Amino acid sequence: MTVNHFVFGKKKIGTEAFSVFNQLHLALIDGKERQFMEFLSSPFFNKNERLAELYQRITKANQAQQPNLRAKIILKQWNKSRKQAIGEEYLISAVDKLSQLILEFIPHNKLQESKINHHRILHPALRNKGLTLFVDEVTDAIHKHNAVAPSSFELLLDDFLLHYEAYYELETDREQNGLEMLAALEERCDLLFQSYQAKFAVERFNLEKASKQTTTPAAEPIPAKNRLLLDLYQSCLAIHKKEVSSAEATASFGRPLMSAHERIDPLDRYALCKHYFNFLSRKQKTGAEPINPLFFEWTKRRVEWTPAVVSREGVNDYLNTINVACFCGDIAYAEDYLSRYRNKLPAAYAEKTYLLGLADILFRKQEYLLVIQLLQDEFPKFTDTHYFFMLRSKALKLRASTELLLLDSTDAQDFDFAFDLVNRSKDDLRKYLQRNENIIPPQFQTTHLAFAQYVSSIVRLVMQAGSRQEKSTETAELEEEIQTAPKLVARAWLLDLIDRLLKK
């Protein structure tokens, strides 16, 4: 609630404005007059130059033992130095503005006085922009401060928030390091919660002894809005654990989220939407359900609901959004998203991520030679680029090479070129996995090796002599194997390839 609403809700004119100002000034500015004048003189905080003069006149009057100075008196004094006279209402409004500026000055000054508070605010802002180098410096500064600071609930909260932000800003390594970081986060959450519980238990014990009360009075009811996040996250957990269908998940979680999303903080709105998106994605990846319009609908909804938050999530979400849009045939949406959010990606990964997104769009446009050339130029065999980008680029290159090979062509030279590309792309992916087995998580090793093998099997069946009927048993077996594989890279593309080439 602003001072204006508090003091002048009934449009009172007179000494009330000066009284409020004097109370705030006496309580909050005592000893900080010089800093407050500097604050008032800064056009960044105050664009009305008259307010600094007014402040000096009021404080001078207060020093002269005139704290209840009426508006008419100071108005008369102030207008003596002005060519254009101002009215009483303007003066009262100006005094009210001074009171508001006092309330704005106090937290600003606290930040200036306390380096650690400065760091606490700066830390999430740097994380949000992907400025990793600066984040690490600020994190170290907070840790150094907390290492020597006395034990306090503020320290516990700091430790929890640092781990919270680190986990939810984790980009490409979440599948590798996420569980360890989440365990550390949960430990700090438990410690913070239990510490408060113990503190409140001691308070309760002493209050009961002092008051000699044996029953606890009814607590103030918790507003339904405050329970909303708990209800939604519990519902979200339930649909994941119960492995329900997309239709059931939509009824129990999707629709409630739809109706409540405007009442949820953007970060949690985005997170809940993303979890539902991941649920649908998992259905597709496990072969339980194909990609359907609902999948793309929630992809777009996640972006539209919280466009400012999209950039925080970075690489995975950026590429997955483009991939889903392309798969569902909305190339225009993919291209718009590619350019619109390019500059909001984490700086360390921005260029590589954009290029992979561009390559995905070119692939959907059937510009296979351009895809191959782009990936060869930007993701060479030997590079220190993060394995996430290298695996994604090499898998896409193998897909583009395969599509190029399987295009209808009577040109033997083109065929030989494409066949060689497929083999080289496949070998390149396998060798990269072997060469980097110490840094690539086992699940990535398994899924990409299986992908390369399925590509080989499909190509072999296509090239194999004989009729479709003769190949039908082997085709059916291969299709079932791909559908039931626990996790698999580009499952939908592999199944589509079988439909196009082995079932026609």
Quick overview:
This protein has 504 residues and is mainly alpha-helical. It has helices at residues 3-8, 15-29, 33-41, 50-63, 71-79, 88-113, 115-128, 132-148, 153-168, 174-211, 224-242, 246-260, 266-285, 293-305, 307-313, 315-327, 331-340, 350-364, 368-378, 387-406, 412-435, 442-463, 468-484, 491-501.
The computed structural class is mainly alpha
Gap from first CA to last CA = 69 Å
* Radius of gyration, CA atoms, in whole angstroms: 32 Å
**Integer average pLDDT:** 80
Q: Tell me about the largest β-sheet.
A: none
Shape: elongated
Strand % is: under 5%
- Helix and strand string, N-terminal first? HHHHHHHHHHHHHHHHHHHHHHHH
| Total number of helices | 24
Helical fraction equals: over 70%
The tally of strands reads 0
Poorly predicted spans: 1-14
Q: Topology of this protein?
A:
Elements: H1 3-8, H2 15-29, H3 33-41, H4 50-63, H5 71-79, H6 88-113, H7 115-128, H8 132-148, H9 153-168, H10 174-211, H11 224-242, H12 246-260, H13 266-285, H14 293-305, H15 307-313, H16 315-327, H17 331-340, H18 350-364, H19 368-378, H20 387-406, H21 412-435, H22 442-463, H23 468-484, H24 491-501
Helix pairs in contact: 2-6, 3-6, 6-7, 7-8, 8-9, 9-10, 11-12, 11-13, 12-13, 13-14, 16-17, 16-18, 17-18, 18-19, 18-20, 19-20, 20-21, 20-22, 21-22, 22-23, 22-24, 23-24
Core attributes:
single chain, 504 residues, mainly alpha, elongated
Q: What do these coordinates show?
A:
This protein has 504 residues and is mostly helical. Among the domains are: 111 residues, no CATH class; 96 residues; 137 residues. It has 24 helices and no strands. Helix 11 packs antiparallel against helix 12, helix 17 packs antiparallel against helix 18 and helix 18 packs antiparallel against helix 19. The longest helix has 38 residues. The chain is elongated. The N and C termini lie far apart (69 Å).
